[in-house]
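Bumping with the actual sequence this time:
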Amino acid sequence: MNLNATLFFQMIVFFVLAWFTMKFVWPPLTKAIDDRRQKIADGLAAAEKGKADLAQAQARISLMEASAKSDNHSRLAEAEKQAAALIEQARHEAEAEKARIIAQAQQDAAQEVQRLRDTLRGEVAVLAVKGAEQILQREVDSKAHAELLEQLKAQL
C-alpha cells in the first residue's frame, strides 16, 4: 500500500467524521450544555432572589418586633397608670370609709354616753329617794315619789 493513498483516505475519513460530528453530534451537545447553563443561571438567580426576599423578610420582622416592643411598652405603661389610679381610688375610698366609720362610732359612743347618763340619773334619783326615805323613815306616796324623781333628774 501506498503511504500517500493511506494518508489521503485517512484525511477523507477524518473530514467525513468531523463533518458528521459537527452536523449530528455537536448541535445536541451544545444544546444540552446551553440548557444546563441556563438552568444553572436560573438557579443562581432564584438563589439571589431568595436571599433578597430573606433580607426583606428579616427587615420586616425587625420592624414588627420593634413595633411590638413599643406597643408592649406603651401598654405596660398604660396598665401601670391604671393600676396606680385604681390604687389611689381605693385609698380614697378607704379613707372615706374610715372617716364614716369613725364618725358613726363617735355618734354611737355619744348616744351610749347620753343613754348611760340618763340611766345613771335615774339610778341616782332612786338612790336619793331611798336615802331620803330612810332619813325620813317614812314612805313617800308614789305621785310625790315620781315628781321628786323627775325634779331630781332635771337637776342632774
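The C-alpha cells above came from a reply further down the thread. Residues 72 and 132 are 87 Å apart (CA to CA).
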